[in-house]
């Protein structure tokens, strides 16, 4: 609680739950010699997250359906709370937070479609990105537009259902994801959104394990070769543009929340270390050089949270949420990254070693900058969407 | 980039290399239109000896370091460092602290430029391929430096020259440099910190030598070194009594402790050294007793430009790989490198690399490296390096953080250059200390 001022009524209990989960369930994964936490414990941590209702689900019988992260509870208060909960968990482990974000994002798309599923899948992930990165603004408006960012994954009507072909890249999700929410072009040129079970013939899921950070979250390449799915697997009512937009906004907001939480965790660790470690005959927190590093990080984390909450509240403003969330992603991931690297510096040589997990925070922070659209792409996006607004 | 063929032709004709044809002969001679990489341009600025080493080092790095880079980073404990050290020794890279004929540095560049210049150009080339393997090879020079810079002729003849002779003959010994202690990291790299440092490694005088007890940590190549230049205070004295000792593997009581798990530069170990009643003979004392503090500080003056050069190498390596990525990655029919926003990013990175190189080479501009220029070069190059590596990763989008492309490993490598050889905060204090009397504390005349 100490880390958040200005929580609203009703938010305290949820934040308390997330803090307790982070401390009692997530923190123990760092016991032992594991730079990214013990991978064998991730499954039980995620099961617990479902059990306590932090992990969202498209299944209305699950505890997290309504109030889990990006759950069905609509409105700006739900979005704001989800962003706060993600950042609380990311203070301890960004990878675990990324699992919950990915699950919540895909669940939210399914829930928003208001499609009643006879057998809702448990673990889901959203697949939007192709090739180099997320679609640019103009592609979001029109996935079939001629030009460099055209979407190549296609769904064609076939019998009473559809056949999907294409590839999706950099899909974050929980290990054991049962179904993917796949965004692709449909024959009339617009967006379609389909729920594709992972075990459908023609679906090939390849995990990517060798990467810099966020390693406790799964990362997949998705290959779809003539995948036949029934008509009721289509989640939109003829045009999935609003679902695409929601997906992009939530993704940027989630990554921003994790980056802010990661920065805050680094700041707390640096302050603690500076108040315990001696250099030059005095505590290192007494050195102005260290104070500058800590103070700069404090300012960055504070700014990041202010922007995060503003962007979270913009999600219900259909006209401006894309611009707000893009600005949040661009700025907060950078602020978080700078906070982490400055806090790592407080530790000196120990910051670079695995012991204090500052190096893990830095690895996670750099991935958060690049994942789902890096600075250069976001700058162009913000200009284009800003011109429209 | 331009669809209209006629307009494209006009634009082409307006480029300086074409438009300069309209100048008269003497005007044309004053325009440099050579198509040359920055690397070639910069190499031509160097004195002959450094130029030769720069070319040799790039060849060596591409032939021997590049193929080992990923496996040495991924599984450092399985990687056998001996073959690459032997190859580097045979090519003369491990004996660059001294000029020909006793070492392999070219005397012209060594005496007219700086003793560190040839090492710095080599460091950039090695580090552009792998931070870990570069450190593995270059930490040896740091271990040799206290002997070379002690000015103590008996030490040089007794220890350094025989070691260099062995290296040239293909039987290299590996040196390491040990100043950091568990309770004193930055303390031993800065004056005020040094005065208050809590040091435990202590040497007690015995008949014909000293007995040393204590611990050193984060020692690069500590686990594989045959010999270590190690600093200890004398019994019942402070850091003023610091003395440099040549401690050899196999001396009774000398052992290697924990090997640290680092974020990057993983091919080179960072190890703890444990000294339990280690007897070191008088002949292994480097320089006079109590000369260790000054010796240590001067070693840092010569090593910091080289660390700056390593940082520059990491950034250049990441930049080159980002350029390659932008060449082969397309958005539809258009290559990333043909997009103006990408070009601006790349230009920014190139400018920063140039800035860092200018600082590093400037700090090696005279025979004796001095504190403020060395520290400034290290700070500038390492800060630039981390920024350029980060931008290179970002430019590659999600592909940037995947292992296998070297960009992300160079990014991890680069972060250490802001910490070792004194954190960049400590190095800033070194700049202030050195320029204090001359220009900071006094009112201008």
Protein model, in words:
The complex is a heterodimer of chains A (389) and B (445). Chain A contains twelve helices and nine strands. By secondary structure, chain A is of the alpha+beta class. The radius of gyration of chain A is 21 Å and the shape is globular. Chain B is an alpha+beta fold and 445 residues long. Chain B folds into three domains: 38-174, Acyl-CoA dehydrogenase/oxidase, N-terminal domain (Butyryl-Coa Dehydrogenase, subunit A, domain 1, Orthogonal Bundle); 176-292, Butyryl-CoA Dehydrogenase, subunit A, domain 2 (Beta Barrel), CATH 2.40.110; 294-439, Butyryl-CoA Dehydrogenase, subunit A, domain 3. In chain B, a hairpin with an 8-residue loop joins strand 4 (227-234) and strand 5 (243-248). Chain B starts with a helix and ends in a 5-residue tail after the last helix. The mean pLDDT of chain B is 94. Classes of the chains: A alpha+beta (389), B alpha+beta (445).
């Amino acid at each position: 609680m100490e880390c958040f001022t200005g929580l609203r009524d009703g938010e305290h209990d949820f934040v308390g739950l997330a803090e307790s989960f982070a401390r009692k369930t997530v923190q123990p994964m760092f016991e032992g010699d594991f730079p990214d936490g013990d991978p064998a414990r991730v499954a039980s941590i995620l099961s617990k997250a479902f059990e306590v209702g932090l992990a969202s689900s498209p299944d209305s019988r699950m505890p997290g359906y309504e109030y889990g992260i990006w759950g069905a509870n609509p409105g700006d208060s739900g979005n704001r709370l989800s962003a706060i909960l993600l950042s609380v968990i990311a203070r301890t482990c960004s990878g675990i937070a990324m699992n919950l974000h990915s699950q919540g994002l895909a669940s939210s798309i399914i829930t928003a479609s208001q499609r009643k599923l006879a057998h809702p899948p448990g673990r889901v992930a959203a697949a939007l990105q192709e090739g180099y990165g997320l679609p640019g603004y103009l592609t979001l408006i029109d996935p079939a537009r001629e030009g460099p960012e055209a979407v190549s994954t296609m769904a064609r009507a076939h019998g009473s259902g559809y056949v999907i072909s294409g590839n999706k890249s950099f899909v974050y999700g929980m290990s054991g994801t049962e179904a993917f929410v796949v965004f692709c072009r449909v024959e009339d040129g617009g967006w379609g959104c389909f729920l594709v079970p992972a075990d459908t013939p023609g679906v090939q899921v390849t995990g990517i394990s060798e990467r810099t950070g966020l390693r406790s979250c799964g990362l997949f390449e998705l290959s779809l070769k003539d995948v036949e799915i029934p008509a009721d697997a289509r989640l939109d009512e003829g045009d999935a543009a609003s679902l695409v937009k929601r997906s992009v906004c939530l993704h940027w907001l989630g990554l921003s929340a994790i980056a802010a939480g990661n920065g805050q965790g680094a700041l707390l660790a640096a302050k603690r270390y500076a108040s315990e470690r001696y250099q030059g005959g005095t505590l290192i927190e007494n050195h102005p050089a260290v104070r500058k590093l800590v103070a700069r990080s404090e300012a960055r984390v504070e700014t990041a949270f202010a922007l995060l909450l503003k962007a979270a509240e913009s999600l219900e403003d259909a006209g401006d949420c894309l611009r707000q969330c893009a600005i949040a992603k661009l700025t907060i991931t950078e602020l978080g990254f700078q906070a982490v690297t400055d806090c790592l510096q407080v530790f000196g040589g120990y910051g670079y070693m695995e012991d204090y997990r500052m190096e893990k925070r830095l690895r996670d922070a750099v991935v958060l900058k690049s994942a789902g659209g890096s600075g250069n792409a976001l700058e162009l996006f913000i200009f284009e969407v800003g011109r429209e607004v | 980039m331009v669809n209209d063929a006629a307009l494209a032709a006009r634009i082409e004709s307006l480029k300086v290399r074409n438009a300069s044809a309209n100048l008269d002969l003497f005007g044309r001679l004053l325009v440099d239109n050579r198509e040359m990489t920055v690397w070639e341009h910069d190499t031509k600025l160097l004195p002959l000896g450094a130029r030769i080493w720069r070319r040799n080092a790039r060849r060596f790095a591409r032939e021997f370091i590049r193929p080992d880079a990923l496996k040495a980073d991924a599984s450092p404990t399985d990687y056998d460092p001996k073959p690459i050290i032997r190859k580097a020794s045979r090519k003369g890279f491990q004996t660059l602290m001294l000029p020909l004929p006793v070492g392999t540095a070219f005397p012209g560049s060594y005496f007219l430029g700086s003793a560190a210049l040839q090492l710095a150009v080599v460091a950039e080339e090695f580090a552009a391929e792998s931070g870990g393997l570069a450190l593995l090879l270059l930490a040896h020079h740091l271990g040799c430096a206290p002997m070379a810079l002690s000015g103590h002729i008996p030490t040089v003849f007794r220890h350094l020259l025989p070691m260099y002779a062995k290296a040239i003959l293909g039987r290299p010994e590996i040196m390491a440099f040990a100043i950091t202690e568990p309770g004193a990291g930055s303390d031993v790299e800065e004056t005020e910190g040094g005065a208050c440092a809590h040091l435990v490694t202590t040497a007690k005088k015995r008949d014909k030598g000293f007995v040393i007890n204590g611990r050193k940590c984060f020692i690069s190549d500590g686990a594989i070194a045959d010999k270590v230049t190690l600093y200890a205070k004398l019994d019942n004295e402070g850091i003023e009594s610091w003395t440099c000792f040549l401690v050899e593997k196999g001396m009774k009581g000398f052992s290697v402790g924990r090997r640290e798990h680092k974020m990057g530069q993983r091919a080179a170990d960072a190890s703890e050294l444990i000294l339990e009643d280690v007897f070191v003979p008088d002949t292994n004392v480097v320089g006079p007793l109590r000369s260790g503090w000054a010796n240590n500080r001067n070693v840092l003056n010569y090593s910091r430009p080289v660390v700056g050069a390593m940082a520059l190498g990491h950034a250049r390596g990441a930049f080159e790989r980002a350029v390659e990525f932008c060449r082969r990655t397309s958005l539809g029919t258009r290559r990333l490198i043909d997009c103006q926003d990408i070009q601006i990013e790349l230009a920014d990175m190139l400018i920063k690399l140039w800035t860092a190189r200018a600082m590093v080479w400037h700090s090696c501009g005279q025979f004796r490296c001095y504190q403020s220029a060395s520290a400034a070069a290290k700070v500038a190059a390492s800060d630039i390096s981390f920024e350029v590596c980060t931008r290179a990763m970002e430019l590659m989008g999600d592909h940037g953080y995947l292992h296998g492309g070297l960009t992300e490993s160079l990014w991890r490598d680069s972060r250490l250059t802001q910490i070792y050889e004194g954190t960049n905060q400590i190095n800033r204090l070194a700049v202030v200390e050195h320029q204090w009397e001359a220009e900071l504390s006094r009112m201008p005349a």
